[in-house]
Write a structure and sequence with these properties.
By secondary structure, this protein is α+β, with helices and mostly antiparallel strands. It has a single domain, classed as Muramoyl-pentapeptide Carboxypeptidase, domain 2 (2-Layer Sandwich). Helices cover 32% and strands 13% of the residues. It has five helices and four strands. Strands 1-3-2-4 form a four-stranded mixed sheet, with helices on one face. Bound molecules: zinc ion.
């Protein structure tokens, strides 16, 4: 089983790709996610060993975004190389990825805490992780 097939046991396409892209391209969207990103997600998910949510409920831009979405022009999200992960313990997820970034193939890491959202809400924060780059970089450490 290759990394893509293994990853598909953990994530559906809808969790990783904007719904408009899926409507237009269907399962071809899997090919828009670079190999390094597939492998990174698989390694992170396996090491975390618990559920990780990317897009869920009304969240649509946590994985591969549309090229014309109003986010930064060269966002790694638009290249399928960045994912915003939600877990039951984001600070611990962040620490785990930071500690093991090399073997996980993570080059950009950011722990985001949203304000004005109920602390019990899983959307109150996320861990941005990307395989794009040459040197490990923590954003807003
Ligand atoms: Zn992000």
């Amino acid at each position: 089983m290759n990394d893509l097939e293994s990853l598909q046991k953990y994530f559906s396409l809808a969790e990783l790709v904007h719904p408009d892209l899926i409507r237009r391209y269907g399962s071809q969207c899997w090919t828009f996610i670079p190999k390094e990103a597939i492998t990174m997600l698989l390694k992170v998910r396996r090491r975390w060993n618990s559920y990780l949510l990317v897009n869920y409920q009304d969240l649509k831009n946590c994985g591969l975004r549309k090229p014309n979405s109003p986010h930064s022009y060269m966002s790694a999200h638009k290249q399928g190389m960045a994912f915003d992960l939600h877990s039951n313990d984001n600070p611990r997820l962040y620490s785990m990825i930071k500690e093991h970034h090399k073997e996980l193939g993570v080059f950009q890491l950011e722990n985001r805490e949203a304000t004005n959202i109920n602390d019990n809400d899983k959307k109150s924060g996320w861990v941005h992780c990307s395989c794009r780059g040459f040197e490990f970089r923590v954003i807003n450490p």
